[in-house]
Design a protein that fits this description.
three-stranded antiparallel sheet, globular, Aspartate Aminotransferase, domain 1, Aspartate Aminotransferase, domain 2
């Protein structure tokens, strides 16, 4: 049936490659509300009529309307139909701009990839084998897949240097346990990944911030901190740093390596974003392979649910102690998920997902750049934005004002290694499924930042 007329002016054809159809319908509604095509109080077509217009079954539309009501996009009035909600979002979870996860890639049927991948795996291996204990560094096939995945970043790596871990967080905790003990100082950026800080404090270590500028950690500050604190360990995220989005240039990386060698520092390189960036300088694992543990997770470039990360140990080092620590913490990665990740890498599906995530992240960054203040900092393919606040706002009032509008963002305090934090927030762009809803959230946040911080932002 043709899509025409005033009633269906907001409706467009569904994309067979864009994921579940009911969620695409929710996206259509959300985008139309964000654009003003649908206004509060507007009546939507009856479910059966919309099913005919979109050439889908009635169950799909029923599920879409139910999901839209759950997100407070629609109100249902018994006997009258469904209407665009006149309420601000006051119930349910906030619009999540706090969780750094990759956006769902458009044009990639993740559910179908999972179904087909699992079927192909079961055709080659028994379910019993996939569901039993798998101990050690990972099978040769899994480690070879990890090496192939990291080759664009690290070049050729021998499988003997690679360990498969159940996520980067577990890997970081295992590495800290391997390299340092209670009371030892861990050198890191002034603002860094909260999971690293939690792991360090769990180990009884002292996070010590090393002064940084717009290019990352300062070499002279690193030298001084290593001398003053007697530390032999530094953990850095040199590419699309979390939260500041800084990518350390090649020259600065080489200077850091010079200091690390002079002070005999071991480097833990937390590198979740290089494959997204696509333009990063050589990593520490290439510049100083003899002293760098390189941690690369699939959670930020594919999907968190795989719970798979790859750790490359320094050249010439044994991986046995790391494997032992990982086993003590988490026994093993989930074999089913690791096998699926290995299969996707082998057949090229993982790269398809990566390219889809990169494209969607780039589109969301363009959207954010068009809405947020010019002071916002980001990488063109990154998952988040670092937003320094205007002088008339402090982060605590901003977080509260955003919360009252149903928005969740992350304050700088969460990233502070030593308790000092600027008035800034991290805005994550991947957790909101629909771009239209993301645009609405960003406009609301920009409006709050542009307003008087003493104004009352309570929902009425």
């Amino acid at each position: 049936m043709a899509l025409g007329g005033k009633t269906a002016s907001w409706i467009s054809r569904l994309d067979p490659a864009a994921g579940p159809r009911y969620l695409q319908i929710v996206t259509l509604i959300g985008d139309a509300v964000a654009a003003g095509t649908l206004r509060p109080g507007d009546k939507l077509p009856p479910q059966r009529k919309l099913a005919e217009l979109l050439d889908v079954d009635l169950t799909t539309v029923t599920r879409a309307y139910a999901e839209a009501r759950q997100r407070n996009l629609l109100d249902a009035v018994t006997g009258r139909g469904s209407f665009v909600s006149t309420r601000k979002e006051q119930s349910g979870p906030p619009i999540d701009l706090s969780m750094n996860i990759p956006p769902a890639p458009k044009g990639v049927r993740l559910a179908e990839l999972m179904q087909r991948g699992l079927a192909e795996m079961l055709a080659r291996s028994s379910a019993d084998l996939l569901m039993t204990y798998h101990v050690g560094a990972g099978s040769l096939a899994e480690r070879a897949a990890g090496c192939a995945w990291l080759e664009p970043t690290l070049g050729r790596v021998e499988p003997e240097r690679l360990v498969v871990a159940p996520g980067a967080q577990t890997a970081l905790l295992a590495l800290l346990a391997l390299q340092a003990g209670p009371g030892d100082a861990l050198l890191t950026e002034p603002l860094t990944y909260p999971g690293l800080l939690a792991a360090a404090r769990h180990r009884g270590m002292r996070p010590v911030s090393v002064a940084a500028d717009a290019e990352g950690v300062l070499p002279e500050a690193l030298d001084e901190a290593a001398r003053n604190h007697g530390s032999k360990l530094i953990c850095l995220t040199p590419t699309i740093q979390n939260p500041t989005t800084v990518t350390m240039p090649a020259g600065r990386r080489q200077e850091i390596v010079r200091i690390a060698r002079a002070r005999d520092l071991t480097i833990i390189e937390d590198d979740p974003y290089s494959l997204l960036a696509g333009d990063a300088p050589p990593p520490f694992a290439v510049l100083a392979p003899e002293r760098t543990f390189h941690v690369a997770t699939l959670s930020k470039v594919l999907t968190p649910g795989l719970r798979t990360a790859f750790v490359v140990v320094p050249a010439g080092a044994s991986r046995d102690a790391l494997v032992s620590n990982l086993r003590a913490i988490c026994v093993m990665p989930a074999p089913l998920m690791t096998a699926l990740a290995t299969h996707w890498i082998r057949i090229g599906a993982a790269n398809d997902i990566l390219q889809g995530v990169r494209r969607e992240a780039a589109e969301r960054q363009l959207l954010a750049r068009s809405i947020l203040p010019a002071s916002a900092r980001a990488h063109p393919n990154g998952l988040h934005v670092w937003q320094p606040l205007p002088a008339h706002w402090d982060r605590y009032r901003l977080i509260e004002a955003a919360r009252q509008e149903g928005l969740g963002v992350t304050p700088s305090d969460a990233f502070s290694a030593e308790g000092r934090a600027p008035d800034a927030v991290r805005i994550s762009l991947g957790g909101v499924p629909e771009r239209g809803r993301l645009a609405t959230a960003l406009r609301t946040l920009a409006s709050i930042m542009g307003s008087d911080s003493t104004a009352d932002h309570a929902i009425v």
